[in-house]
Design a protein that fits this description.
The protein has five helices and seven strands. With about 180 residues, the chain is an alpha+beta fold. Strands 1-2-3-4-5-7-6 form a seven-stranded mixed sheet, with helices on both faces. The protein is globular, with a radius of gyration of 16 Å.
Amino acid sequence: MGEVTFREATADDARAIALLHADSWRRNYRGIFRDEFLDQGILDERRGVWTERLINNPDPQRFVLLAEQDGALAGFICAYGDEHPRLGSLIDNLHVAHDRQRAGIGRELMRRAGVWLAERFPRSPVYLDVLERNERAIKFYAAVGGRREGPLMTAGADGTRVSSYHVIWESPGALIEGAAPNAR
């Protein structure tokens, strides 16, 4: 496989991001969200989300970074600066294409999001929410220095109640350090 390159998302990327996002949810949230939603409604729902984010409602406090490899979307991350009064800046999404996982792409997306947050919101902690049953993601976030808090019950995208955790970094610098290639 070729070199991985990174760039900020544009409005033209909404469809590709939605496709990767839907595929990731189908693979990782089966048995957590309703099958009907994952099999029939997820792509339209994710298209709506990414159209809203990248086309209808651009936000200077939102950062969407793509990883591309061999002309295809290999992964993406979406962060919101200083989104919550206590928890700080939010990593709202991190998804890596199934066939490109375990190659360091997710770690590098996290590190680069940390750099963006450190430049704009240096005193804000960083957090994300991860579903309790998403064990691989929980292990990954621990490996990049995140501390788990919870569990808590939230509403899933399909309306079901799901158990999740907050994963917290004390600062963007802690996220950068934890996601560095040689960390842990």
